[in-house]
Amino acid sequence: MSWLRIVWYYCLILFSYEIYGDEDTLVQKQTISMAFEQLKYRMESKHELSVLPQLRVIRNQAKHYAQRTIEIQTILIEASIRQHFGDYKHSLSMHYQALELAERVGKPRIMVETLLAIIDLELDLERYDHAQRYVNQATQIAQALNQDDELLVHVKLWRAKIYLEKGSFRQALYELELGQKLAKNNSPLSARLLLIEAQVALRLGNYLVSRTLLNEFSLKYMSSANDKGKLDYQLALAESALQAGEFSEAIELAMKGLEQTFHTRYLEEQASLQRLLASAYAQLSDYQQAHLYLKRYSLTERALDQQKRNNKVLQLEAQYALAHQQQQVSLLEKDNAIQAQQIVQHEQTLENTKLTQQRWLLIGLLCLAAVLFIYWRWQSRRYTSKLEMQVAERTAELKERNKRLQTLSFTDSLTGLSNRHYFFSTIDSQINALPEKHDMIFCIVDIDHFKKINDTYGHAAGDLVLQSFADILKQCTRNSDLLVRWGGEEFLLVMPDMSRRDAQEAVERIRQQVECFPFIVNGQTVQCTCSIGFAPYPLTPDLQEQVSWEQVLELADGGLYLAKEVHRNTWIGLDSVRQLSAFDVEYTLKHYKEQVRQGNIVVSSSYVGAEIPA
């Protein structure tokens, strides 16, 4: 009777554990879903690098609890962020990883979403044939889901985008017409379809049709459009005005759109607006302004081409390294298989030999077999050791090549300093490693009148000045500081664990060294100066969660522009913020000068007696 009671209690405990264990798993899954939805809502407005750690935590938890859909969507979001910031190499790898998981899960909807994300990346890389292949695959899957019209509208929208990029405007209009029929007044989808249809009409020269579509977009969807949609609308509206011959209105609209691209990564739209302004000014015979915006357009296009070319080179090098490594592994596997086959054949030969020998030679044959076996084992170990040594050498060689490749991708070829790619890959880890209640100073340094040096002495002389300038910055900074060539004649200096007063001394030391240094250009001594703006992170302990490091970097950039406007060869740094409860970062960035004048933000400057201009 006692044994039956023990068994009964044991079964009851197991049953209770399964019930409560399932409830705990369900609660964890609901928590993960809620956290992901909140993060997804936050990402709808703009891309932020600061969400990557939280995104990876959610992905690991979703993987642990087998929530494959959330795991795939987190991979796609991180890949989209990397794509937005130009990291196409890792973005492409993560897109393929998501596609592999989606194929394994077997859900058609998540499969189509993954394919559409890959199509977006392929269009950025200008690989239209790849994009066409993926959109055909997505169309087949979406058509199999007869009841999901929204998914089919997404596919039609991306097919129209591909035709627009390839110049097949009639086919694009056909796909857009089918998409509008299926959209059924779906506001986000209808808005995107209207914008693309307006762009196609402009390419065909139908500016009246384009204006009608844009007016409909403005009335119905402008309030709910995101920043990218509003910028596309502004660009299309300016192009329609240019085609209509309303050049002054085109300039006004383009200027408004150009303001929206400042401090963003929408370089393609910025280049289109600059080209449009140059055309409009040329039509009004204002050739000075036309030449100015044409030059800016050329510089923006050159930067875009250089970025795309670098990303494609990195992608090809990564594919070559991976293929070479897989080839080496395959060769090693074949060698091991041959050796294993030879060993088996040798053992079979010994076995057959032992069976055919006479009994009276059994002892001798056993001894001989033992000797042969020992010899075979020695040879096998020797050969295995040799193989391991070869594998280790090849692995070290591949590691060294990957290290050199990473160094090239993280280093500016002219100055030898780190580049933007390296900065974006390490800034989050440096901020996380910053001790509590310690500041990190973001400092932007710009060479004064650098364009005049290039125009007077040539670009080769300008490169020599940049190299000498970089050497001065290296001498004036600590080993723990991060020194980056930010672009052109601008340099970014990140100084962790430094007080604001020490930062003033550091930037003053840089300013004096540059002012006193004799730059040798074509055998002549040229005096150069620099302007500096800096800001601390966190701005204040009370605003640590409110103000991100990207916004602090923009505040430092505001200080730089103010220093150039007040008096070059000076520095301006943000010291403190008054009225913390009413502090608005976006307003401060747009009205930096006014905020300094009113005393809402306190700055320090090396130029004594400088007045903030009205």
The total count of helices amounts to 22
Q: What is the average of the pLDDT values?
A: 79
Q: Which structural class matches the secondary elements?
A: alpha+beta
Largest sheet, strands/sense/barrel: 6 strands, mixed
Query: Helix-strand pattern, N to C?
Result: HHHHHHHHHHHHHHHHEHHEEHEEEHEHHE
Beta content: 5-15%
Tell me how many strands there are.
8
Radius of gyration: 32 Å
EC number: 2.7.7.65
Domain GGDEF: 438-576
Keywords: Membrane, Transmembrane, Transmembrane helix
InterPro entries: Diguanylate_Cyclase, GGDEF_dom, Nucleotide_cyclase, Rev_trsase/Diguanyl_cyclase, TPR-like_helical_dom_sf
Which properties best describe this structure?
8 strands; globular; 72% helix; membrane; alpha+beta; 22 helices; six-stranded mixed sheet; 614 residues; diguanylate cyclase
Please explain how this structure is put together.
- There is one protein chain.
- With 614 residues, this protein is an alpha+beta fold.
- The protein is 72% helix and 8% strand.
- The protein contains 22 helices and eight strands.
- It has helices at residues 2-43, 52-64, 68-84, 88-105, 108-124, 128-144, 149-166, 169-183, 187-203, 207-220, 227-243, 247-261, 267-283, 287-356, 362-410, 420-432, 450-457, 459-475, 500-516, 549-566, 585-590, 592-598, and strands at 440-447, 482-487, 490-496, 518-521, 524-527, 530-537, 571-577, 601-605.
- The protein has a six-stranded mixed β-sheet with strand order 2-3-1-6-7-8, sandwiched between helices.
- α11 (227-243) runs parallel beside α13 and α14 packs antiparallel against α15 (362-410).
- The longest helix has 70 residues, at 287-356.
- The protein is globular, with a radius of gyration of 32 Å.
- Residues 6-20 have low confidence and may be disordered.
- Pfam families: GGDEF (PF00990).
